[in-house]
Amino acid sequence: MAIVWSKKAAGTLYEVRSAGNSLRLYTDGVFHSQYNASQLLTGHVWDLLMLPAFFYSPNTIKRVLVLGVGGGAVLHMLRKFVAPDLIVGVELNPQHIYIGRRFFNLKHSGIQLIEADAIEWLKRYKGDKFDMIVDDLFAEKEGEPVSVVKANRRWFSCMLKQLNKEGVIVRNFINRDELLSSAGLKNPYIAEKFSSVFRLNSCFNENFVAAYVKKRVSSGELRKNLIDTPGLNPTLKTSRLRYSIRRLK
């Protein structure tokens, strides 16, 4: 991969690398995001973060909050395939926001980028609630991604306060054990708030994505909505969308 742009700031190395027709963001060697204007599906975990929107009928998801923007791969997919009225992305790292706007075209009127600590921002937020909250908060440690906030009762309670009554929380987990021990499954007070919980993963990723849904939904509904969406039909041999799904509740 060729290095298109690089910068070292506050001891951290940021790189934009080209991979075929795609641009990739690396922070201290950790792969954070990918962008290809003609092929928004990445074949990576960001595809999975979008999928829970398809538990719902078209035009149901109106407001989406993404905690941890990186280069904005999931924001682009949400905008194209889900088309909510508003996507709010909260990102602590100003370099990521700069790169997202300069190289990954995060300039659309329906996308609002906020430079802030996502955890503190959410605690203080007083606006309208969201239909979908995506928790993709990661940092780097010794060249490996690490979760920024534990999926415990306190954090779930914080997200639930800003979620609409039939909304969904989507979280990116580094491994299956983290997912299975999350408060959304293991804490009785939190778990009872959700009628459905699903695990999504792909053979192309080590990560696991969990969808905590406040209404009863099925994987069949999700699949039908994907089939009906141009560019996402997973039954086509040409489709880049590959996932497996399992109900946990």
UniProtKB/TrEMBL annotation:
This is PABS domain-containing protein. GO terms for biological process: polyamine biosynthetic process. The keyword Kinase does not apply. Pfam families: Spermine_synth. InterPro entries: SAM-dependent_MTases_sf. Keywords: Polyamine biosynthesis. Gene3D superfamilies: Vaccinia Virus protein VP39. Transmembrane segments: none annotated. It comes from hydrothermal vent metagenome. The keyword Protein biosynthesis does not apply.
